[in-house]
Specification:
elongated; single chain; 10-stranded mixed sheet
Length: 442
């Protein structure tokens, strides 16, 4: 049996099942992608393009671009008619629009914080969890389009009143000769990566890593101080002749080593129709697309088939221990998804099995997020690096679990995984009519 020269280190970070990253061998199993459930959002939910949800220590802020009643759709350096508004929520479900009193005599909502300037179009904020960040800069953002000649960096203490780091110098310059003539001209997401220990930006470009120009896509840049950014790295993301309008990549709250994105696919020859697909990046490395088709379709509503009408708001919300929620930007739609339920390793009516690669742990209790049918089940053994079951932790000692658990703590005749000494091991699973969504070592 093949052994790994260097076992994979496992920590308290959760691992998702959408590929064979943890798996050495599998039989009669397949990976499945699971679509979210659509429902009507609360009446106060903001609607508009390039939405961004920012979780602070005590509330959620929803940033959304809108237009006043006289905007003609033609941008200039002043972006007349565009505004940026902010709504607030204590639970991520019910939203209110505070009166910030910034533009009392203008035809914009009371919760507008920017109006009629070059930074309303694609303002992309986040709450900075970097432990070295002063409280006066706890909120950060980037914004800018080709008319401003690049992306500029902003900071704020409260997420409402913003200042430039440098009002004269962009942190990413508009460089059409390098990255295409419409670079930056959409939502350029940015965040602090707890895993990479740096700031990460996915910015809009019109050039792929293969050198193909004229395709909407995105590139990656990183920074240690939010002022000085690396040369954007072109990525392998698009399929042939495919436009990806935005990335919406963000760290998954339950497993921040994963960046999960819901990009908009754009079909210009079909009336600019759009839909949404699903992408992952593990450890900040290359983009993976376990699904090569739409994850969220436009559906029956004719408005969802119109020009640029399907964009997801940036960031996922952990609504309950069992449920994630996220939002459609332009429409009053909320989506719900099982916690960790983007993808799973699936067994059908014929039993299947998997054996993990050699893993190494120092401490931690094993948790499994899984769901079986009434007739299905899961059995679990802990093995040594050669694949031989450890006495007391065999399939017979475990028996069979059937049911649905977000955080099953396995037991073998009353013994838990944490009773085992630290060191290398493997997990061996036997599955029937079962989905495994994630495992973690808490």
């Amino acid at each position: 049996m093949k052994k790994l020269s260097s076992p994979l280190e496992v920590t308290s970070l959760r691992e998702l099942f959408y590929d064979d990253y943890l798996i050495s061998e599998r039989h009669n199993l397949e990976f499945r992608i699971h679509s979210p459930v659509e429902q009507t959002a609360s009446s106060g939910k903001p609607c508009g393009h390039y939405g961004a949800i920012v979780k602070t220590n005590d509330k959620y802020l929803y940033y959304c671009r809108g237009f006043d009643g006289v905007y003609n759709g033609i941008r200039s350096n002043a972006n007349p008619g565009e505004y940026l508004a902010v709504s607030e929520s204590s639970d991520g479900i019910n939203w209110v629009a505070p009166d910030f009193k910034k533009f009392p005599d203008q035809p914009v909502p009371v919760n507008a914080i920017f109006y009629g300037n070059g930074f309303t179009h694609n303002f992309a904020p986040f709450f900075d969890n970097n432990p070295n960040t002063p409280e006066s800069e706890r909120f950060k953002a980037v914004s800018g389009v080709r008319e401003t000649q690049g992306l500029f960096a902003f900071y704020s203490a409260d997420g409402i009143n913003w200042q430039h780091y440098d009002a004269q110098q962009p942190v990413i310059s508009y460089s059409p000769e390098k990255y295409g003539g419409h670079m930056l001209d959409s939502q350029n997401v940015v965040f602090y990566s707890e895993y990479e220990k740096c700031y990460v930006m996915y910015l809009r470009v019109w050039k792929t890593a293969d050198g193909i120009t004229g395709l909407r896509t995105f590139a990656k840049s990183v920074s240690q101080d939010f002022r000085n950014w690396s040369e954007p790295e072109l990525l392998h993301v698009n399929f042939p002749d495919e436009h990806l309008y935005v990335s919406t990549l963000a760290p998954y709250p339950r497993a921040p080593q994963y960046y999960i994105g819901m990009p908009t696919r754009y079909f210009g020859k079909r009336g600019s129709a759009t839909d949404v697909t699903l992408i992952f990046s593990r450890h900040g490395q290359s983009i993976q697309r376990p699904l090569d088709e739409a994850w969220i379709k436009p559906g029956l509503n004719p408005a969802r088939w119109q020009n640029r009408s399907n964009y997801m708001a940036w960031q996922i919300i952990e609504h309950t221990p069992e449920e994630l929620i996220f939002y459609h930007g332009p429409e009053n739609i909320m989506y719900k998804l099982r916690t960790d339920g983007f993808a799973s390793i699936h067994a059908g009516t014929q039993s299947g099995s998997l054996l993990t690669k050699v893993l190494n742990r120092q401490h931690g209790e094993l948790e499994v997020n899984l769901s079986t049918s009434a007739g299905g089940g899961m059995s679990l053994a802990v093995c040594d690096p050669s694949g031989k079951a450890i006495p007391g932790y065999t399939f017979e000692d475990f028996g069979e679990f059937y049911g649905d658990k977000i955080a099953l703590v396995p037991q073998w005749n009353g013994k838990r995984f944490s009773a085992l000494p630290p060191g290398p091991f493997r997990l061996h699973m036997q599955l029937k009519e079962c989905d495994i969504y994630s495992i973690a070592f808490k």
